[in-house]
Design brief:
Blueprint lengths: L4 E8 L2 E8 L4 E5 L15 H5 L5 E4 L7 E4 L2 H4 L7 E2 L5 E2 L2 E2 L15 E3 L2 E2 L3 E2 L5 H27 L1
Antiparallel strand pairs: 1-2, 2-3, 4-5, 6-11, 7-10, 8-9
Length: 157
Amino acid sequence: TSSNHTISFFKRNNTTTGSIAHTNNSTSFNTSSDYRLKENEVALSDGITRLKTLKPYRFNFKNDKDKTVDGFFAHEVSSVVPEAISGTKDAMHPEVLYTADDELPEGKEIGDVKEATKINPQSIDQSKLVPLLTSALQEAITKIETLEARVQTLENA
C-alpha cells in the first residue's frame, strides 16, 4: 500500500527516540523531535558565525579512488556540532590475536597477532547540521532584506 509503515522503533527509558519508516517510494530515518520531550529551548543566534568555522571538502575515500564526494572531517565538525559526530578522533581497534579456535597459518602460534591495530573511524550524521544551516540562512536572509530596504530607501531619495 502507499501508507507509511514503521519497520523499527528505537526507545530509551520507555520513550521512542527514533524510527525507520517506509512507503512505496521512500524511506525515512526519524529522530524524535516532539516539543513535549524538550526544555530550555533557546533560538540559535550565531548560525553564520558557527557555520563559517565548518570546512567542507571535496575528496575521495581511499577504498574508492574513482569517486569524488563532498563532505567534512568528523573531528573538525565535533567542536561546532558535537551531536553530529560519533566516535573519538584517532581511535583505534586493538589488535586481534590468534586463539585456540583459529586455524593457525604456518609459522603462527596462539597469541600471535592475527590482525594489527586498525582505525576505529569517527562518523558523522550530516542531518544534524540542518538546524545550524537553517539558522545561518535565516540570519543571511534577514541581512539581505535589511540591505535591500536600505537600497530601496536610497533609490527613492
